[in-house]
Amino acid sequence: MERLAAGLPDTGQWRNGFDLADVDGDGNLDLIHGPPRKSRRPPVIFRGLGDGRFSAVGPPRFADLPLDYGDAAAADFDGDGRVDLAFAVHLGGVTALLADADGDFPAASPGLELLPPGEADFSSREIEAADWDGDGRIDLIALGEGPARGTAHPRRGLAVFLNRETGWMPVPAPDELSFGDSLALGDLDGDGRMDALIASRRLGDPAVLRLQQKDGSWTVTELETIRPKSYSPAVAVTELDEGKVVEFALSWVQLAGDEWRSGVDLYKKLPQGWQRTELYAEDGAQEIRALVAGDADQDGRRDLVTGNDGGEIRLFLGQPDGSLRAVIDRALAEAGDGCAAYDAHLEDIDADGRPELLLSFANEPRDEECSGGGSLQAWRLSVQ
Length: 384
What we know:
- Helices cover 1% and strands 43% of the residues.
- It is mostly beta strands.
- It is globular, with a radius of gyration of 20 Å.
């Protein structure tokens, strides 16, 4: 494995998530991230140069909003051919910024204006852009980040904001207690409609499935095979079959007796329900927050990358029998230098036909570890 000299920052608390899209229309993927935690900066776009490197030169102008760290999603929301940006903002809510002809993002689109910190009924650190209702327009799906100290708002559950001609329309949501920082989308029940799978940080919460109904609402459904007395930092879809989800990965932290354990499980859809298979487990409460699936070695089989709160990155390659084999690489395993891994993407950023691994790290700076508070990194995966 080789870390690329990609021009990405070696300092800063880069949490919780980022996205990749061709924002400037030059044919290269750009990296979009919200403000680094505690930075009091606007969001950042690192312009892809097409050779595995990025440049932060010439930042766009963003709307004067109370933006903060969280997550980012990029898509063309208004159908004008330009990539727009959405942000899930810690304690602030969810907003969508439309690109203008100059490449700036001067205002929030109607219906998703941010509130000052602590005043929003719903806020999130996890957002996805997708066509939830099948009308051809890109909607926003977010997961509540949970209760915060000193505020009365619960900030729980799934939130869907439908993209309408006149602005964004929230879908009425059922009352629920789940909250977290990761969600995945797909047709979980085979009815042709998009569903959501969440990683719930509520201990002992099996209600991680959100199955969409004909009217666009959804039911909160339990995953019967989930580990008892556990919570889930991250989830990722790991295999698709003709657009239907047949497998996903869920990271977990479990109270087993008087001790904590952590790891990753795979869930496969069978006629009788979701079958759970342990991918790996270890002692201690090491949260796996970064979890991404893709074909890292281009052999047609799904692979998986995990990153924990100690900054350890693990690569698992899909085998002909359907299993996943761990690939040991010391440099990649120590990539975080003690900073927690928060997000990961597998995308081809140098036009060689093979995906690179993009990672974000963040933590409070310490003397021995994570002295810079975090980083953004790009890695070339030399796997066989």
